[in-house]
Amino acid sequence: MAIETYEFSSPTPRSAARDEWEALMSQTYVPLAVDTHPEAPFYGRVTTGSLTGPDDFSLTALAGSNQAFRRSKGHVARSSDGYLLASIHTKGGACLHQHGRSAPVSGGDMVFYDTTVPYHWTNGSGDWSDSRDFEQVVVQVPISLLRDQPGLEQLELPTAVTVPADSAAGVVAGFFRKLARFQHEAPAEAEVLAGSALGLIGSAVLLAAGERPTDSPAEALSREHVMVYLRKRFIDPELSVDEVAAACHISRRTLFRIFDGGESFNASLRKLRVRHAQSLLISSNSHPSGAIAFGSGFASERHFYRAFHRETGMTPGEYRQSRRSGIC
């Protein structure tokens, strides 16, 4: 998963840097115009990486200030491809306008919009009086690719409708927020997680349209629901399969089935615990391995040693020493 970051800023509203930023936005997404504050300086940063499949199925982290985006009929006419964009707002407030509807977003909310139809973004108040910094995570998926997903062949896309962060589809928004972070912190793991991206975005579209996900999109959503729960509870040594299944409103059989074809449920839980143990081994040099084991959710020190060696190829002591020596 190749990651690229571009950053622009200017102390003046109109400048070569602003024009370069508009060109970059058009290249990253689709042709569009960037309107800047008539008096204040502007700032923009985008980090982009491709997801599984076509290069134009991508995930970007976008940040900026004192600007608005606008895609006109002329921009649409100059484009041959159509995409569905899903913007997950992580800082500030903004509003997406399309199809005569307006969808305000903030604090983890998500909104879908169709690049084959004009749209524009404004800040929360709709004018420059309330201009502020903003950050978004944006998923871009070709509409033709999305239409191949079960239940989406003829679905009217739910554009310009706010998807709250605490809704069922908000689970998907949270997944992409974390995936954008993992692109920097753990690119190899991000590449594995990206395998679920298409099914999850399909599930979110169906949920936002008031439909029930079926087949593979439903399983992708259920799997991420389980992973969200595991990330909250994995340090509990008494965490059981029955507890996870009940909390996620699925049966034991379904829980194991949704992990078929990839990393198993037990392997996913083990990896979370070992990763936490690695962090504790580095940050808590004086803590004995037994304390690290129980603090990471392992029921016994012996189980901890076996799981740690299986995941890392080292014992906990060897791993701690290697980090002290700067070997890994």
How would you portray this structure in words?
The protein has 328 residues and is an alpha+beta fold. It folds into two domains: 209 residues, Sandwich (Jelly Rolls); 92 residues, Homeodomain-like (Arc Repressor Mutant, subunit A, Orthogonal Bundle), CATH 1.10.10.60. Helix content is 42%, strand content 23%. It has a six-stranded antiparallel beta sheet with strand order 1-3-4-11-6-9, with helices on both faces. The chain has a five-stranded antiparallel beta sheet with strand order 2-5-10-7-8. Strand 7 and strand 8 form a beta hairpin. The protein is globular and about 65 Å long. The relative contact order is 0.09. The model has no long low-confidence stretch (mean pLDDT 86).
Tell me briefly what this model is.
The chain has 328 residues and is of the alpha+beta class. It has helices spanning 16-28, 73-77, 143-146, 170-185, 187-193, 197-208, 215-233, 241-247, 252-257, 265-283, 289-295, 301-312, 316-325, and strands spanning 3-10, 33-36, 42-50, 58-65, 67-71, 83-91, 93-98, 101-106, 110-114, 119-123, 133-142.
